[in-house]
Amino acid sequence: MKTIKTLYHKYPITGTFIVIFSILGIMYSLRHNFSLNSLNSNLLIEAFGAIVVLAIIAWITGVDEIKFSTVGFRYTFKVTWFIIVYGLILAGIGFGVKIHQGAHIHHPIIITLECIIFALCIGLFEEGLYRGIFLSSLLSKFGGTRKGLVFSLIMGALLFGFIHVYSDLFGFITDPSTFSMEALNHMIGKTISTGVFGFVLSIAHIRTHNLWGISLVHGVNDLGGFLIFYLFDPNQSIEAIEGYVTTDSLGSFSIYGFIGETIIMIPLVIYCFRQIKEIQLPQYGMFKEKWSPISVVKRKTYY
After folding, report:
1. Which of 107, 209, 229, 292 is the one with CA 20 to 30 A from 178?
2. How far apart are CA 3 and CA 68, in angstroms?
3. Measuring CA to CA, which residue among 29, 22, 25 is closest to residue 8?
4. Buried b (16+ CB within 10 A) or exposed e, 219-240
5. Whether the predicted pLDDT of 216 surpasses 90
6. 127, 272 in Cβ contact below 8 A?
7. Cα separation, 55 vs 49, whole angstroms
8. How many domains does one find in the chain?
9. What would the pLDDT profile of 219-230 be if each residue is shown by its tens digit?
10. Nearest-5° angle of CA 43, CA 46, CA 47?
């Protein structure tokens, strides 16, 4: 185990790609080989993913990185609050569309509580994996210069955007009949909007060194979408929720939603690029530095 850890610290980017695709492969296999597609099943799978990712982070850098802390929460919500509000507004509109279509709500209290836990698990899993591990692996190589920092942020955002549509892209390759311009528009819109969202969260993470704040923001941002689907059908598959090829009115609506989300985030991206100038260098991430919320208090890297 010590040898593996040494190799991981020596080749963090290679090791991280192995970790990412191994975890995603296991979770994909669990869903498809055992037909685990209900809300309860998806919740358990995402909880498993979150626990594994947090354990890997603790193994790499120690438990301080994963200890709950509110350090930097104010800054994190300052740069993301209107993304959350926009997402909740879209969810409200989507909810209205479903009601207008005559859909019926199932077990609202229980489903809502399960969706909240599900969203928080996804937030911890994805932020721990993409901001905690992958971004740090890039920073370990490029975080010594301002250009290297920008490169790491952009590459992290691109991977985060791509990982949300790769299954659809793979579907087009294996079955070209599934391709359509609507599907392509969904993929492009989702990739851009998700990538920009990931870029903003990466800035917040570097400024605060706190996974919990960005995980909470991520979870709240996803919660509205989960409620729309699971309140009306608790047995929806995760692909149906995250998929970009839909036949109902929400399909076309979501394209405009992605476009709108990207547009409103342009000023935020400009603001975040300005924030890069204020980030103290070097920022080598948790593979080479002791990253924790306490460390930013000492370095005063957030406000």
Report:
1. 229
2. 29
3. 22
4. bbbbbbbbbbbbbbbbebbbee
5. yes
6. no
7. 10
8. 1
9. 998 898 888 888
10. 80
Query: If phi over 0 gives left and psi between -120 and 50 gives alpha, with beta otherwise, what is residue 237?
Result: beta
Q: How far apart are CA 272 and CA 267, in angstroms?
A: 9
Q: What is the DSSP string of the chain?
A: -HHHHHHHHHSHHHHHHHHHHHHHHHHHHHHHHTT--SHHHHHHHHHHHHHHHHHHHHHHH-GGGGS---TTHHHHHHHHHHHHHHHHHHHHHHHHHHHHTT-----HHHHHHHHHHHHHHHHHHHIIIIIIIIHHHHHHHHTTSHHHHHHHHHHHHHHHHHHTTHHHHHHHHH-GGG--HHHHHHHHHHHHHHHHHHHHHHHHHHHH--HHHHHHHHHHHHHHHHHHHHTT-TT--HHHHH-S---SHHHHHHHHHHHHHHHHHHHHHHHHHHHHTTS-S----TTTS--SHHHHHHHT---
In the Cβ-directed half-sphere of 18, how many Cα atoms lie within 13 Å?
Answer: 9
With CA atoms as reference, report the closest residue to 133 among 17, 7, 273, 260: 17
pLDDT at 49: 94
Cα–Cα distance for residue pair 197/83, rounded to 1 Å? 8
Q: For residue 112, how many other CB atoms are within 10 A of its CB? A: 15
pLDDT value, residue 171: 67
Domain span at residue 264? Answer: 2-299
Torsion on CA atoms 122, 124, 128, 132, rounded to nearest 10: 130
